[in-house]
Design brief:
Structural class: mainly alpha
Radius of gyration: 20 Å
Helix content: 55-70%
Number of strands: 0
Number of helices: 12
Strand content: under 5%
Largest sheet: none
Order of helices and strands: HHHHHHHHHHHH
């Protein structure tokens, strides 16, 4: 495994930059916030009554913990052929560079954490015929999350596809997955925790119909679009090397790409809720960037990293200072 491209010093620098941008946003920032978070039957995190300082600390702590956990995740499953810290550094920095998700607790980091947990369970049963327990847990995680944020629902079909890609899907595991999705609601209604009149259905606004009213969040949409396009280009560029390499590593990476595709489709169909998907998009982008450095000899590495960092710092500054298109 290659190592040393970013290293611990680069990781620490990414953490310091993310913490600094998050602190600036929390203490002096006033960007326009999106209103789109809803739960199917419970209030979403943006409606929880939490002390703002506590909310900021918890959110930042989750970003750092999840970012560092990604490094251990790769050490366990080796889906990136490098022991370097590019993945955690990229994820932490990207999350810190987005004022929509770096200053208060939102569903974005929670959804990414749920996706991280689901990937962990499915990666662990690669090519296994005994995956019923893992599939039930994954279904339950998504169902529980959907109670507080409807965006979790969009990932239910994605994990069915991921399970098939990882060759751990059979009739028993499919039934277990369906039971996992149904069980939390069944139990909640049965014990009276979820009143039937508490269910609500979100109103979706797709990107193409709603863009005219989204001019005030143009920079944030541009940040998202650039990240998705960059991730797509890197995924295609890395695909040749991955295809010629280890089959297991290729399928694990394909699973993460499916997660990115699900996020991109969800953003297009549900643009009012765009911030919820961003942390997961940054996870996928971080994996593609880490694969680039692991699989290729990148020329002018430091120049590439410098411009990458400057691009997202510029996006942060524009969002932070209220640079919007005129309505």
């Amino acid at each position: 495994m290659r190592s040393g491209m970013i290293g611990n010093k680069g990781l620490m620098l990414a953490i310091m930059l993310a913490c600094a941008m998050s602190a600036i946003e929390f203490f002096i920032g006033t960007p326009q916030r999106l209103e789109g978070e809803l739960g199917i039957c419970f209030p979403s995190p943006n409606l929880w009554t939490i002390n703002p300082l506590v909310s900021w600390i918890v959110n930042l702590g989750l970003i750092l913990i999840l970012g560092l956990s990604l490094h251990l995740f790769n050490k366990t499953y080796n889906f990136i052929s490098s022991s370097d810290t590019v993945l955690p550094a990229a994820f932490i920095f990207l999350c810190g560079s987005n004022p929509w998700i770096d200053s208060v607790l939102t569903s974005s980091v929670i959804l990414m954490g749920a996706n991280f947990a689901c990937l962990h369970f499915l990666f662990g049963c690669y090519r296994s015929n005994k995956s019923t327990q893992q599939m039930f847990i994954v279904g339950s995680i998504l169902a529980l999350g959907s109670m507080f944020q409807y965006a979790f629902v969009f990932f239910i079909p994605a994990y069915l596809i991921i399970a098939m890609v990882l060759k751990c899907m059979n009739i028993k595991s499919l039934l277990a997955y369906i039971m996992g999705v149904v069980a939390p609601y069944w139990i909640g209604i049965g014990i009276g925790l979820i009143p039937l009149d508490s269910f609500s259905m979100p109103t979706f606004t797709n990107l193409f119909d709603g863009f005219g009213s989204k001019q005030t969040i143009f920079v944030g949409l541009l940040n998202c679009a650039v990240t998705i396009i960059l991730s797509t280009m890197l995924a295609l560029y890395n695909a040749v090397k991955l295809y010629a390499g280890n089959t297991r590593r290729r399928l694990l990476n394909n699973s993460i790409i499916i997660l990115g595709i699900a996020s991109a489709i969800s953003i297009v169909c549900d643009v009012d809720n765009i911030q919820v998907y961003m942390a997961t998009v940054y996870l996928v982008a971080g994996v593609q960037l880490a694969n680039l450095f692991a699989l290729r000899q990148v020329r002018h590495t430091h120049t590439f990293i410098f411009f990458f960092v400057m691009l997202y710092i510029a996006s942060y500054v524009l969002m932070e200072t209220g640079f919007y298109l005129p309505a």
